[in-house]
Each structure stands twice: as structure tokens, then as C-alpha cells.
Automatic annotation (TrEMBL):
Residues 12-36, 446-495 are annotated as: Disordered. Pfam families: ADP_ribosyl_GH. Keywords: Hydrolase, Magnesium, Metal-binding. Residues 455-483 have a biased composition (Basic and acidic residues). Mg(2+) binds at residues 116-118, 384, 386-387. Residues 21-33 have a biased composition (Polar residues). Its cofactor is Mg(2+). GO terms for molecular function: hydrolase activity; metal ion binding. InterPro entries: ADP-ribosylglycohydrolase, Ribosyl_crysJ1, Ribosyl_crysJ1_sf. Binds 2 magnesium ions per subunit. SUPFAM superfamilies: ADP-ribosylglycohydrolase (SSF101478). This is ADP-ribosylglycohydrolase.
Length: 495
């Protein structure tokens, strides 16, 4: 039996209980048709608390990543010195009083208290999975191969991503803010959907096999949850295949495989200490090194062995995944800000620090402080803060669970109710919670809507910007009125 890090939410001092809308776990019916029959979830019945713990960690992973993304926007692309100067209190809130975001053209383009493109793309993967698992059995013509579960996911995700770069997240009518340069150039290629990985490979080769940004890593965490009942090797394969629809560099691939492996292990209760983290990292690295098509995208016969292996050179890899402090990673470096290893290294280090804090705080009843403190420390480093915190938030959320996320963050998260509903459907589709997953219109590639024309897109973007500016103005006026309460003659009589 795997060892589970279990903390009873009902007895933890100062903690939040799972929301009433969170289902109580019941044994899933394997014949219900809502999950792949090859998924082995027998471990859920090894102990009464295991299923509840897994459920808590699934919610923790998804909401934790969205929160990291949202809080990270406060400092994204800022130098560390500016972060410390602007946010002197080193504390953030998404509920009254909402922490005021540093106003610039970048941050003003996003909806207040909402996630960015990082979570949008993760949700494209989630919606693709839910849509494929909610179709009537009669519409499924070719079940996935036992060796490659979720084999249709990469192509369907690619189709959704191409829609997203122009239409946005249609399910929530969100414009596509923050499109990365690599994703935009690869996905907008006219031949992209005919072979996404080949298109991405061609683009990567034109960069002299050098480009390794964090765009695939930021969105990969849902795959770990889809594969919680699958073997580790199957999870690696899905992570690699989905990631390579845009990012084929071996450093990007190994980073995705490591994070998926860690989250899967945390949710299953198989990763409980730093030794387990190290072992998962090394297993993932070794597996990628054994896959010729991952080490040499496009299988170029002219490359020497040294040219193939240099991208996963150990010294560079170890410098990031075994970093002992955030300062070592130089996250604010403008030259390497979006480098995938920086994101991976900061997320793994944050997980390690979280494990150490849980070991201490568990005795003191302050586990609820772990997520907030570590994510805050991370984003105050500046750099690509939202992406770093999105990945770290997925790992930390999988460690501490949903019940240990800070309420003054989660309660104020925009679109939280919608996201919680999707996570509930995920738990049913995976098989952790019993229940059918019926088709829902907004999980289709077009969000259940007619795709917008160019003029409609322009109108939508103008309307969204107007709403954002109006909300910001209303918030400032409300806070100003609150600050002025108690001032003047009337205020003296209230003292």
C-alpha cells in the first residue's frame, strides 16, 4: 500500500473544509462507461481515507495552479527589486480588500482576479478530455490502444489551440491574452493541423535547435490527473505527445514528463518525501533519454550522438532541478526568463520546501499557510512569475490538497464556480467519483457556439476591455470611499 500524506480537514486547526459542492467519494462503477477500462484505480479502496485524499488533491492541483497563475500576474515580467517595492506588504488578496495590481499595459489587459493564458491552455486539455469521455458509447468508433491511452488527445488539443489563439476560451468568452511567441508562430502555420508535431519540429529546427520555452510545461498538469490510474510510462507518453504539439525540444519534453510524474505520484500517495521526488525526476529523465524520437525530433540522421544528447546534458539539468534556493535560479533574468528549466526548477524547489514546511507545520496545525507563503515567495522573485507559480501551484496543491489553499485567494478567483464544476466532472470521468459524465455544450471545441467573425472578435475585445476598465474604476472608487470612512467631523463621534 502506498503511504498517503493525509490531513483530516475536520480536525486541522484554522483550515477550510471542502466546499459543500465537492462530492463525497463513492466507489466508481467500472462498467459505467465514464472511464477507460484499462485504468487501474484499485488503490483507492486500500484504505477508507484514500479516495477522499485523492479527491482533495485533484481539486488542489487544478485550483492551486489557477491560483498560482492568477497571483503570479501581479509580478509577471517585473524585476525582483520592483516586486519588493510595489508590494511592500508581501501579501495578496483576491477578496475584499482586493490587492491592487500594478497598472501597466500588460496587466490591464487581463480580467481582475482571473488566470492568464497558462490556465486557459491547461483548460483546453481538460475540456478535450471531458468532451471525449462524455460522448455516447455509440459514437466511439475506435477505443484507445492499451499502450497509448488518450491517443486522440494531442490532435484534439491542437485543434482547440488553433481556435483559442484567435477566438479565446469560448466557454467563458475570454479573449486570448498573453499568447506566447512560439505557440503563436507554430499554431498559426497553415499546415499545423495536418501534423502538429512535425510543424513544431520544423519551427524548432529553424531556431538551430535552441528554443526551449515553458509554454508546454505550464499547461501539462491535467494530464497527470487523467493518468492517475494508468502506469507511469503511459503518463509520460501522453505528456510528451501533448507537449510536442508545440514544443519538441527535449528539455521541454522532460520537464513535462517530470511534472506529470510528480503530480501523479503525489495524488496517488506514492511521493511523500524528497527522496521520492528525486527518484521520480530521475525515472522521468531516463525514460525520455530512451526514446529516440524525443531525443532527436524528426529523427535527423545527420546529427551526431553528441549533438543529440547535448540538450539533456546533466550539469545544466541538475543545476535547475536540484537547486537549493530561488536565488540560484535567477528567475528575473531577462535573457532566460521563459526558459523551461527555470520554471521546472522553481516548481520542484517549491515542492521540496513545501514538504519541509508540512513536516514542521503539521505538528503546529499551520499547514494552511504553506501554499500562500511559498507561492508569494516565488512570485516576488519576478520574471515569468505567473507561469512559474502556475506549475508550482499545481505541485503544491497536489501536496496539501484543496482544503489547505488560502481562502482569501480561492474565494475570490474569477470563474471559480465554473472551474469547480469541471473538476467534479473530471473526477467522474477518471473514476474517482461515481457518476455519468453527460455531454455539455461548452466542452466542445467551439465552446458550443458559432465561431466569431473578425468584426465580432473586435467587438468582443473592445467590450471586454471596457468591462475591465469599468471594474477597475469601480474598485478604486469603492476602496477610496472605505478609506475615507471615519474622517471629518462625523468620524470623531465614532471613536
Amino acid at each position: 500500500m502506498a503511504d498517503f500524506v493525509h490531513i483530516d480537514p475536520l480536525t486541522m486547526e484554522g483550515s477550510d473544509e471542502l466546499p459543500a459542492s465537492t462530492p463525497q467519494p463513492t466507489t466508481a462503477n467500472p462498467s459505467s462507461g465514464t472511464k477507460d477500462d484499462r485504468s487501474d484505480l484499485a488503490f483507492l479502496d486500500l484504505h477508507p481515507f484514500v479516495r477522499q485524499s485523492v479527491l482533495d488533491k485533484i481539486y488542489g492541483c487544478m485550483i492551486g495552479s489557477a491560483l498560482g497563475d492568477t497571483i503570479g500576474l501581479y509580478t509577471e515580467f517585473l524585476p525582483k527589486s520592483a516586486c519588493e517595492k510595489i508590494y511592500k506588504e508581501k501579501r495578496f488578496s483576491l477578496v475584499e480588500l482586493v490587492t491592487e495590481c500594478y497598472a501597466d499595459s500588460h496587466r490591464n489587459s487581463f480580467e481582475p482576479c482571473a488566470w492568464t493564458d497558462d490556465t486557459d491552455q491547461a483548460l483546453l486539455i481538460l475540456l478535450s478530455y471531458l468532451h471525449s469521455h462524455s460522448k455516447p458509447p455509440s459514437s466511439i468508433t475506435s477505443p484507445p490502444s492499451p499502450s497509448t491511452p488518450l491517443s486522440n488527445l494531442p490532435q484534439d488539443f491542437a485543434s482547440r489551440l488553433q481556435i483559442w489563439i484567435t477566438q479565446g476560451l469560448l466557454a467563458l468568452n475570454r479573449p486570448p491574452c498573453g499568447i506566447g511567441q512560439l505557440v503563436g508562430s507554430v499554431v498559426s502555420n497553415p499546415s499545423y493541423l495536418s501534423d502538429p508535431t512535425a510543424t513544431a519540429t520544423t519551427h524548432w529546427r529553424k531556431s538551430h535547435r535552441h528554443v526551449a520555452p515553458n509554454g508546454s510545461l505550464m499547461r501539462t498538469h491535467p494530464i497527470a490527473l487523467f493518468c492517475v490510474g494508468f502506469p507511469e510510462t503511459a503518463a509520460w507518453r501522453v505528456a510528451a505527445d501533448v507537449g510536442r504539439t508545440t514544443h519538441v525540444d527535449p528539455r521541454c519534453v522532460v520537464s513535462c514528463c517530470i511534472v506529470v510524474c510528480l503530480i501523479r505520484g503525489l495524488v496517488r500517495g506514492e511521493i511523500t518525501g524528497e527522496e521520492d521526488v528525486d527518484a521520480a525526476i530521475e525515472r522521468s529523465y531516463a525514460w525520455v533519454c530512451e526514446q529516440p524520437e524525443l531525443m532527436n525530433p524528426g529523427l535527423d540522421p545527420e546529427l551526431t550522438r553528441w549533438e543529440i544528447e547535448r540538450l539533456l546534458e546533466r550539469k545544466e539539468f541538475e543545476r535547475h532541478v536540484y537547486a537549493e534556493g530561488l536565488d540560484e535560479l535567477e528567475l528575473e533574468s531577462s535573457r532566460e526568463m521563459g526558459y523551461v528549466y527555470k520554471c521546472l526548477g522553481s516548481a520542484v524547489l517549491t515542492l521540496r520546501l513545501g514538504m519541509r514546511m508540512v513536516g514542521v507545520c503539521g505538528v503546529q496545525g499551520k499547514v494552511g499557510e504553506v501554499f500562500e507563503r511559498l507561492i508569494t515567495d516565488l512570485i516576488l522573485q519576478g520574471g515569468d512569475a505567473d507561469t512559474n507559480a502556475a506549475v508550482a501551484g499545481a505541485l503544491l496543491g497536489s501536496l496539501v490538497g484543496y482544503a489547505r489553499l488560502p481562502a482569501h485567494w480561492s474565494d475570490g478567483l474569477a470563474h471559480k464556480e465554473w472551474l469547480m464544476g469541471k473538476i467534479l466532472r473530471l473526477t467522474k470521468a477518471v473514476g474517482v467519483v461515481e457518476g455519468q459524465v453527460h455531454e455539455v455544450e461548452d466542452e466542445a471545441a467551439n465552446g458550443g457556439k458559432t465561431l466569431m467573425s473578425k468584426s465580432e472578435l473586435e467587438d468582443r475585445d473592445r467590450g471586454m476591455l471596457h468591462k475591465i476598465l469599468s471594474r477597475d474604476r469601480e474598485r478604486k472608487e469603492k476602496e477610496e470611499r472605505r478609506r475615507n470612512q471615519g474622517k471629518g467631523i462625523g468620524g470623531w463621534f465614532k471613536k
